[in-house]
Write a structure and sequence with these properties.
Blueprint lengths: L6 H10 L3 H5 L21 H20 L3 H5 L7 H16 L4 E12 L2 E11 L6 E12 L2 E7 L2 E5 L2 E5 L4 H21 L12 E6 L2 H8 L9 E2 L6 E4 L6 H18 L10 H12 L7 H9 L20 H19 L1 H12 L4 H9 L3 H10 L18
Parallel strand pairs: 6-7, 7-9
Antiparallel strand pairs: 1-2, 2-3, 3-4, 5-6, 8-9
Helix pairs in contact: 6-8, 8-9, 9-11, 11-12, 12-13
Length: 398
């Protein structure tokens, strides 16, 4: 736990960079709620305000190192609910996986009407891993006399129930993203039988990230896997794209991520259902603009390389060799359920899982068979494993 009472001394040490370690580690303590009060007008206190913004950035890094979730979230603005949801996921992750080293700093700060803007530099390393860094335009808000971090400074375009956020010269891409999303939206909503629910009325926000590093850092400090999109409950859809991306690549990406958005509305336990189910139904949502994994999964079955379902269930503990199976094998099973039991039964099955039921219980309730029976029926549609022939030694000469 960090100690706010010791913050001034620690900040002084940081400002003076007394040791090599202090130039890298952030040791200052997070602000207590309401601890900082800025009298008006801001301009007359500009140096003091900038110092407080700089201290706030250091306090965020200190909380991450200390795995102090509550201290970190006290420094985050709640004005944008989707951004705050991102930060809750970010903070929950560093509680489980605190960084070994971490330094956040803000430079080139400008002030205007209770808003501070500047360039945020994040540098960190996880235990046993190389240092990483990312920089982006960020802003802070003065709320009830306290400065809080409010995330990136985005440009945006608005459309019919959609807002696309981007940084820099990505306006043409943002327009294409908006158009592509309008093409996939109704299809995904229909697939989840949500055309008359809250989802079609919701304004969907999509954030475009220019670099993989920025997208990863927006998720958590520990995240290092390659990815092209991300979504968690309450968050905007996040995608990695460049100005050359066209509709044929944007549609399947957006349909996959919007499939996650729909899945998370099925019940409070949606994030705890097996990972292969989450990714399988998202891939099924994008199938219209992509392809079915039939040939690949059949080749795995023929070679005896189908994964055990339990090995595909836990996002936090997945062997590298099974990552592709999470998506392709999961997609194939979801397609099998849809083709053989129908859309309504598939949605009921997903809903039971999202409401906390185990696979067997959900399968019995929605499909009328156990999951073991479902798995057996699915496997019966695939080629049987054909063991490789072992060459027999030539008989010895008489």
């Amino acid at each position: 736990m960090l100690h706010p009472a010791r913050a001034p001394q620690r900040r002084l040490a940081l400002a003076l960079c007394c040791t090599a370690a202090l130039s890298w580690h952030a040791h200052s303590a997070p602000h207590s709620a309401g601890a900082t009060s800025i009298p008006a007008p801001l301009e007359s206190h500009e140096p003091a305000v900038i110092f407080q913004i700089e201290s706030l950035a250091r306090d965020m890094a200190a909380a991450a190192i200390a795995a102090d979730r509550d201290g970190y979230l006290a420094l985050i603005s709640r004005t944008d609910e989707e951004f705050y949801a991102e930060q809750v996921y970010f903070a929950n992750d560093f509680v489980k996986k605190p960084p070994q080293e971490c330094a956040f700093r803000i430079e080139e700060v400008t002030l205007s009407d209770g808003v501070a803007r500047g360039t945020m530099h994040m540098e960190w390393s996880m235990p046993g891993a190389a240092a990483r860094s990312v920089s982006f335009p960020a802003h802070f808000l003065l709320e009830d006399g306290t400065w809080r971090y409010a995330g990136e400074v985005w440009d945006r375009i608005e459309g019919d129930r959609i807002g696309v956020l981007f940084i820099g010269d990505f306006a043409p891409l943002a327009e294409r993203v908006s158009e592509a999303f309008s093409e996939i939206r109704a299809h995904v909503e229909e697939g989840f039988m949500m055309t008359d629910g809250e989802l079609p009325r919701k304004t969907q926000h999509i954030k475009i990230y220019r670099t993989m590093r920025h997208l990863q850092a927006s998720i958590s400090l520990s995240y290092s896997d390659a990815l092209s999109g991300w979504n968690e409950p309450g968050e905007a859809i996040k995608i990695l794209a460049n100005n050359r991306a066209q509709a044929n690549s944007l549609r399947p990406l957006l349909a996959h991520e919007y499939g996650h958005v729909a899945t998370f509305l099925l019940g409070p336990g949606a994030t705890t259902m097996p990972w292969w189910v989450l990714e399988g139904v998202a891939e099924l949502s994008a199938e219209k603009w992509g392809s079915r994994p039939d040939g690949l999964v059949k080749s795995w079955a023929k070679a005896g390389r189908l994964a055990p379902w339990d090995a595909l269930a836990d996002f936090e503990n997945i062997e590298a060799r099974w990552r592709g199976h999470v998506y392709r094998q999961g997609h194939h099973m979801l397609g099998y359920i849809s083709d053989n039991f129908g859309r309504e039964a598939r949605v009921q099955w997903l809903t039971h899982l999202a409401q906390g039921k185990a696979l067997d219980e959900a399968s019995t309730a929605a499909l009328g068979i156990s999951f073991e029976q479902l798995d057996a029926r699915w496997r019966a549609t695939l080629p049987g494993h054909e063991p490789e022939e072992v060459a027999q030694p030539e008989p010895a000469a008489p």
